[in-house]
């Protein structure tokens, strides 16, 4: 996991704004299959949105923390039921500002 500066976080939020969620966490919660799908999506896109099915804010925050720690990713934003996650690729397509 990398530590983002406020400027980098703001930049990623801007890039994420037009994106649609690529993974949905449903009734069964954060399963191993969902984690694998998130990992594939991060490998393909670096920056993704995830839609969380839970109405509980604490549950969504816990899911975001678990995803990031499991996949060595970085949380960008948690707004409503949308989690924004970033994981820098070996050959990054997204160039973060300094």
What do you see in this structure?
This protein is α+β, with helices and mostly antiparallel strands and 98 residues long. It has a single domain (6-86), classed as YhbY-like (Translation Initiation Factor IF3, 2-Layer Sandwich), CATH 3.30.110. The chain has 3 helices and 4 strands; from the N terminus they run H-E-H-E-H-E-E. It is globular. The protein starts with 5 loop residues before the first helix and ends in a 12-residue tail after the last strand.
Topology (elements, then pairings):
Blueprint: H1 6-16, E1 23-25, H2 32-45, E2 47-52, H3 57-71, E3 74-79, E4 82-86
Parallel strand pairs: 1-2
Antiparallel strand pairs: 2-4, 3-4
List keywords for this structure.
4-stranded mixed beta sheet, alpha+beta, 3 helices, Translation Initiation Factor IF3, about 100 residues, about 20% strand
Task: Work out the helicity level.
Answer: 40-55%
- The topology string of helices and strands comes to HEHEHEE
Distance between the termini: 17 Å
Enumerate the strands of the largest sheet in spatial order, edge to edge or round the barrel.
1-2-4-3
Q: How would you classify the helix and strand content by structural class?
A: alpha+beta
Number of strands: 4
Tally of helical runs: 3
Q: State the CATH architecture.
A: 2-Layer Sandwich
Q: Might you state the CATH topology name?
A: Translation Initiation Factor IF3
What proportion strand?
A: 15-25%
Give the overall average pLDDT: 95
Poorly predicted segments: none
Tertiary shape = globular
CATH superfamily placement: YhbY-like
CATH C-level: Alpha Beta
**How many separate domains make up the residues?**
1
